[in-house]
Design goal:
single chain; mainly alpha; 2 domains; three-stranded antiparallel sheet; 7 helices; 3 strands; globular; MarR family transcriptional regulator
Length: 170
């Protein structure tokens, strides 16, 4: 495995932004650079989650949503928050329920709907994974100075607000 990484690192880096030329619009260059960085980090996190905890990133993400809402979330709300179909949420929930990490509870305000909650075992498992996950992210971004991180957070927050404003107009 280390030999493969060494070989990959020796080759010129090819990513989503590598096909750009000076003629491309600066916004497109920025978009592809952000996407490229996101994909690299996400792929590394996926690999580490599977190797260390035997869990997929979507399952981790669903548990992360539920960790923020101890009273649980409806399936539709999970779908919206994770930006995936209801069918995907159902499949992930089924798997986590079989492992006793989450449970479905009838929504008291609408008996046709279910909320999903972390079980105590699910909360403990997620807490362990989240602690390790945070360390991975810190490791992957250790080459970025604290000042640069702050600046990037500010810039991306501004960009997100502009994108929200555009979405409201549509």
């Amino acid at each position: 495995m280390d030999n493969q990484r060494d070989l990959l690192q020796a080759e010129p880096e090819l990513d989503l932004a590598s096909r750009l030329t000076q003629d491309h619009h600066q916004s497109l260059k920025l978009w592809l650079r952000m996407l490229s960085c996101t994909v690299k980090i996400e792929n590394e996190v996926r690999t580490r989650l599977r190797a260390s905890f035997g869990i997929t990133l979507p399952r981790f993400d669903l548990m992360a949503q539920l960790e923020r809402f101890p009273e649980g979330l409806r399936m539709g709300e999970l779908s919206k928050r994770m930006m995936v179909t209801g069918g995907n949420i159902t499949g992930i929930t089924d798997q986590l329920e079989q492992e006793k990490l989450v449970l479905r509870v009838v929504d008291p305000q609408d008996r046709r709907a279910y909320s999903v909650k972390l079980t105590p075992a699910g909360r403990r498992a997620f807490d362990d994974m989240a602690r390790v996950h945070e360390g991975w992210i810190a490791e992957l971004l250790q080459g970025v100075t604290p000042d640069d991180k702050s600046q990037l957070i500010d810039l991306l927050s501004h960009m997100k607000q502009q994108l929200n404003d555009i979405a409201i107009k549509d």
